[in-house]
Amino acid sequence: MNLSFLNRLEALLRLVPHVKKPHEPLTFRQKLKWTAIIMGLYFILFSTPAFGVNKTTLENPVFQLLNIVFASRTGTLITVGISPIVLASIVLQFLQGAELLKIDMNNPYEKGKFQTIQKSAAIVIALVESVIFAHSLPLLSPSFFTIVAAQLAIGAIIVIYLDETMVKYGITSGINLFIAGGVAYAIVAGTINILILGAIGQIQSGAWAGSNLLPNVLLAFGSLFFAILVMLICIYVYDIKIELPLAFSQARGVGGRLPIPFLYVSVLPVILASSLIASTTLWFSFLSGVTGQYANLAHFIGYYTVTGNGAAGGTTKALSGGLLYLISPTFNIGEPYPPPYGIGYGDYFNNLIAGISPLYMPWGGVVYVPEWVHIITYTIVLIILCIIFGKFWVEMTGQSPKNMADQLQSIGWQIPGFRRDPRIIESILNKYIPTITVLGSIVVALLAALANLTGAIGTGMGILLTVGIMYMVYRQLEQENVIESSGLEKYIS
């Protein structure tokens, strides 16, 4: 698939609406204004329930991970969230990396066409996922299926264009701020939930009287404590970096430093890995209805427990066994994810140690897998996926040692004490970037797993994303402010 093939789609691609770029560079204040407007529209969609969906779905913790991953809120108009954008990006980046889709991203015309294709793919995925979500959600009545699917599709398409508008008019990408906004909501709502339904209620009822008062209060805030702990570790890790000295070849005495952060690819590996896991567990929810000779194979892949009566109460499909269960952060121990909110940390950790989940064999029979095996399997799979996506993303986004060396060479930088040759720079960068990519991917995977396993408010990936996004936005705001203060914004398109 090359550009000549894509040229045949020119007429079709022209039908896809797009957001025009501003006629002139926006000021920092204008970008903040547009960002506030876009986030306001996003939270309107975030707070508007889809007509025909059981409203209990809005606060169902079973969907919390999906909501964090997709910057969505299940049961509202943005139930699909940013999933179509992320998945379209993954597919096209893979095709580009495998050279099945050959587009020169340095060519503005070809880059624009690539972005149009990506947006078109996202819209198609949004339509498909809207049908899948409508089929999976507890509806007030089966007759609402088409109406709900249409609402979810419209909401998903609006999110796609809000993201495009944010990229062209805001301070960063819409995906970043949508995720951060959703996580911030989850953390605030989770803290209020603990305060109202947990600690205060127990103290007023006298259940924590006597010497056990302080330990029980501290345990009640365990989810918040682990969230803060992971957040602090993330902030610390983000500040770790290696700085390589640079010298400007055309001006003697002029030098600088090339920072290589420990989290070289930020938290993108966790986004992609968690999106893949969450999408897979969602897509295979149809296996709950498979019967007959293929039932054992379906249950081996993923065993879904269906609850509800399908009427006013709706139905919920919860993953509770199979291979997909072993690679997911969902725990079937009597309460929906994350369990500490409902059963307390004592029972939660006991169940993680002693609990079991069914693994149905394709040829018949069932094997019960201990939950500690589930924990290890999930953590290992998450680490492997993060490493794969981390290395993949470095190559796809031009951050590989070779690309970085070519960029430094093109603007006249060199390593002091070495002759001006991109191969020299590449060999030095090769000592750091591949290793840092792997180690950084492992660390973010472990932090995400730690937060997920301890039930931290906002989930591990949500906390990692929020800290990373806020750090990036802070750096970007700082840069924007410096540019505007120096009067250089008129020279930057």
Into which percentage range does the β-strand content fall? 5-15%
The low-confidence runs, each spanning 5 or more residues with pLDDT under 50, are 309-314, 334-339, 488-493
Main β-sheet, in a few words? Answer: 3 strands, antiparallel
In the CATH scheme, what's the topology name of the domain at 1-170?
A: Preprotein translocase SecY subunit
Question: N-to-C terminal Cα separation, in Å?
Answer: 32 Å
> What percentage of residues falls in helices of 4 or more residues?
55-70%
Number of helices: 20
Strand order of the largest sheet: 2-1-7
**Count of β-strands:** 7
Order of helices and strands: HHHHHHHHHHEEHHEEHHHEEHHEHHH
CATH architecture of the domain at 1-170: Orthogonal Bundle
Radius of gyration over alpha carbons?
Answer: 25 Å
Shape: globular
Mean pLDDT: 76
Query: What is the CATH class of the domain at 1-170?
Result: Mainly Alpha
Q: Tell me the name of the CATH homologous superfamily of the domain at 1-170.
A: SecY subunit domain
Structural class: mainly alpha
Q: Overview of this structure, please?
A:
There is one protein chain. This protein is mainly alpha-helical and 493 residues long. It has a domain at 1-170: SecY subunit domain (Preprotein translocase SecY subunit). It has 20 helices and seven strands. The protein has helices at 3-7, 10-13, 28-47, 64-70, 83-97, 108-136, 145-169, 174-205, 213-220, 222-238, 268-283, 295-301, 323-326, 340-343, 345-354, 371-396, 401-410, 422-429, 433-453, 460-485, and strands at residues 241-248, 255-261, 303-308, 315-321, 356-360, 366-370, 413-414. The protein has a three-stranded antiparallel β-sheet with strand order 2-1-7. Strands 3-4 form a two-stranded antiparallel sheet. Residues 309-314, 334-339 and 488-493 have low confidence and may be disordered.
